[in-house]
Amino acid sequence: MHSFFAEILAELWLWFLDIKYWFKKRKRRKFEKEYHLQKRTMLYPSQKLSLIYVLVILFFASAFMIFESADSHPNRTEKQLLKIARLLEKEKKDIGEYPIVLKTIIRNNPLLKGVTKDHWNNEINYQLSDDGMSYRLFSFGKDRTLNTKDDITIGNKTQFE
Fold first, then answer.
1. Membrane-spanning residues where (predicted)?
2. Least buried of 2, 114, 142, 153, by fewest C-beta within 10 Å?
């Protein structure tokens, strides 16, 4: 109940400031007309407050976007590799073997169109073992170089070493 009254008082205060401003603006326009001055841009107090709100929201939104995107690429790529691994397991369950080429899992499905790319827009590499019983998925990472610490790998690697 107290917040309701506080909101009403705040709204009344803004109306008071806007009316006070309206008289000030009217006086200013009369002065400008009398002395042939160019009109100056003037904002109502409520407009100033709205402008401040918009600037604060834009600041926090851009800060969030910068910090969110900076470190999330490895996590996103790992999730992408897990998604591909699930699709490969489904393929093995349905057909009885893993596909030879990774693009086979797309099967003209527009929802899976970009599934074979990591979040640095590189192709995800797929390696099938000689016996066809295991596979390895890997992303070269940000540096696009194999066997560096930013590589992300999923699968049964023992068959390949």
1. 6-23, 49-67
2. 2
